[in-house]
Write a structure and sequence with these properties.
alpha+beta; about 20% helix
Length: about 140
């Protein structure tokens, strides 16, 4: 039942919430290398890009909320495939306003999740384009 296509495009959710008047983002760890990332996945038949992003946030981080339909930004990274090869991927990022954090979700035992400020998140992620998006979120809104 693997209908996912390795197209070089992925869709990601950037989970956000407000706490004590401050914006926070959630990062999760990748399954194999335990790097800090945001939930993301491959395009899926019959799902719009923002719907894929929302589904990944649920599966990988146990988050449910309102997802924007237009991308906030994008970044490119080298995706390591199971066969050891790598493919460049462009990831479109969709903002997800988190409404609920579930206690149980499909990948609960495989990842760590953590809320933090956007600037703290920018220090932990490895993709330069994602750092740029996080720093934009960290800037005070005028």
């Amino acid at each position: 039942m693997n209908n996912k296509k390795k197209s070089g495009a992925q869709y990601a959710a950037l989970p956000v919430r407000e706490r004590d008047g401050r914006r926070q983002v959630m990062l999760i760890t990748s399954r194999e290398t335990k790097r800090w990332i945001i939930p993301k996945g491959w395009p899926e038949k019959n799902l719009e890009p923002h719907e894929v992003a929302a589904r990944e946030a649920y599966e990988e981080a146990g988050l449910v909320g309102r997802v924007e339909t237009r991308p906030l930004g994008s970044f490119v990274y080298e995706k390591r495939l199971r066969d050891g090869s790598a493919t460049p991927c462009q990831v479109d990022i969709f903002l997800l306003e988190v409404e609920r954090e579930l206690d149980d979700w499909p990948e609960k035992g495989q990842r760590e999740r953590r809320w933090m400020s956007p600037s703290e998140a920018a220090l932990l992620v490895g993709e330069a384009g994602l750092v740029t998006v996080l720093l934009r979120l960290a800037a005070p809104a005028d």
